[in-house]
Amino acid sequence: MGDRMDTGDRVDTAVVWDPALLGYDLGGDHPFNPIRLDLTMRLARALGVLDGIDLIAPDPADDAELGRVHRPDYVAAVREAPMASWDVGHGLGTADNPVFDQMHAASALVVGGSLAAARHIAEGNADRAISLAGGLHHAMPDRAAGFCVYNDCAVAISWLLDNGFDRVAYLDVDVHHGDGVQTVFYDDPRVLTISLHQHPATLWPGTGSVSELGGPGAQGTSVNIPLAPGTRDPAWLRAFHATVPSLLAAFRPQVLVTQCGVDTHVEDPLADLALSVDGHREIYRTVRELAELHTGGKWLVTGGGGYELLRVVPRSWTHLLATVLDRDIPVETAIPVDWATTVRKIAPNTVLPTVMGDGADVTFERWGGGRDQPVDTVIRDVRGAIFPLHGLDPDDPRD
């Protein structure tokens, strides 16, 4: 276990972080509160996850880098919005995406964080890289959406495609459909986008149905796995294992990019899935194995959604950092007293968990044998629609 190799300055994992990233702050009582990032980094430090790690401070993405995905008129609108006395449009100034001071600079820095992670992988300085402030997967080329101003995931993928990678897999485990990334690469056969999310009939943005398969020249490279409200860890993991590993094996990506939103948790106030922190930890460990198996370990990790700011996000994302760094934390690990004291100063009435897990059972029965389960309907739909496009047999559990 450890984060460094013995070959020169090369490290296994790059961790991108600077307190300036907390400047992406939509203000007031907006649910996308940067305190979740601050408390995550504090908890990770308190548990020793970041001991000996030199954090990488990113530079803001410039207009050319943002232009990989976003239209120049939109970038100009973001820059001008805090000073404008008129409606700038482009999805800005809404309840979801209010205008805030230094919006362009703060958003460009988030993109710069994911680009820094991509560069460390492409330049051979790291096999894995994580930028927790990233994961703004809803932003569209010409507008803000879903708390996201610029789409750092899409910009990083575009950059990777121009810097040594021909096949990129994007895996999105946020409760909301990864619509912005899918839109950008819908017609690009070099990018496989896979999104597991709450069913679009029951949650914003209302997209991400199984029938969204990719454009005419990229059929099968857009994969959507919509899950019913109330889905718990065993059913989520059953759906994941019945679809994702086979598709990654068939696509043969050179690098895996993941958006690791934790708004799938049962306590999240904005959605209706029912996962646990234990389930999140299991997802991260599984994705790590898949990256080792299919991309030679090349794995770029971003954060994303998550709106139970005190009880859930810091624990889940501390597990994410620990997993990426091969410093896995047992779920029964006690919450550090000093960290809990800090949280109680912020929110005195919050009842905090005492350990790093929820005590949930994450064991599951694999698809392809035994009794049917409700989640099998979507598994069969996804396999039936997607697997033949990759030369896989949708009815064969070995595929």
Automatic annotation (TrEMBL):
Keyword Transport tagged: no
Keywords: Acetoin catabolism
Residues covered by the Histone deacetylase domain: 30-323
Pathway: Ketone degradation; acetoin degradation
Pfam families attached to this UniProt entry: Hist_deacetyl
Domain of life: Bacteria
InterPro entries found in the cross-reference section: AcuC, HDACs, His_deacetylse_dom, His_deacetylse_dom_sf, Ureohydrolase_dom_sf
Keyword Oxidoreductase appears in the UniProt entry: no
Family to which the UniProt record says this protein belongs: Belongs to the histone deacetylase family.
Protein name as catalogued: Acetoin utilization protein AcuC
Source organism of this protein record: Actinokineospora diospyrosa
